[in-house]
Amino acid sequence: MIxxxxxxxxxxxxxxxxxxxxxxxxxxxxGYPRLDPSRCPGGCxxxxxxxxxxxxxxxxxxxxxxxxxxxxxxxxxDACPHEALAFGNDAQLSSNTREGLVxxxxxxxxxxxxxxxxxxxLFGRSIKFREVxxxxxxxxxxxxxxxxxxxxxxxxxxxxxxxxxxxxDGLWITGPVTANMKEAVRIAYEAVPSxxxxxxxxxxxxxxxPYAGSPEASDGIGGLLPVDLYIxxxxxxxxxILDGLLRLLGKIR
Length: 253
Ligand code: SF4
Ligand code: SF4
Prior knowledge:
Elements: H1 2-11, E1 33-35, H2 46-50, E2 56-59, E3 62-66, H3 75-79, E4 85-87, E5 102-104, H4 117-123, E6 127-133, H5 139-145, E7 159-161, E8 170-174, H6 179-191, E9 197-201, H7 203-207, E10 229-231, H8 238-248
Parallel strand pairs: 6-7, 6-8, 8-9, 9-10
Antiparallel strand pairs: 1-4, 2-3, 3-5
Bound molecules: iron/sulfur cluster (2 copies).
């Protein structure tokens, strides 16, 4: 027993201090994009040509990067000889709207806003999600799952994942919603009591990700259900997920 207690003291406190303490991310982490079209010589589309997902366009002196389509690979950065774009270290990427994920050079970003006062009073201290894995690769589930470990301890914010949509306040969707999962998602949504919220976690759930355009997928959840929170990434970093969720719940303003 003494040995166990000493080990516990030696190990100390392992849970991240985020959001009280800023997250320290590795240098190679790719976060919020920085676009500088003033560096682009006329007619150059090297970045757009390099993107297999149609996430970046360059028109009339404006660079536009859609984080909802982006998988942060980063072929566009490597293809640009003029250093007109780069990925920064900022993990705050989520948005309440699909348009909010579009980064336009020279325009202010739209971070996630807290849900309305009525929903905050209902869910702000305790919210439960039913996760629906709708045909992705499991990467997004893995990084969502990390939040329930001791390193993140999502429970300290009153957030829990539950087994049944009937016990949930919202759905947490990952994957592009394959043909086989479409009906299951609809049934799960109807089983959640109102009011309810929907989170699209990862490029697949937002717009199909690497599976976009497949006749076997629905290009994400947006065309099927109303979405309250979009969390980009492939998969999103746990800090990106946590940050979006805490903003939606009004715990970060
Ligand atoms: S980082 Fe995003 S925008 Fe750039 S090539 Fe990859 S998917 Fe396309
Ligand atoms: S967004 Fe990327 S990590 Fe998430 S399910 Fe799709 S392919 Fe996998």
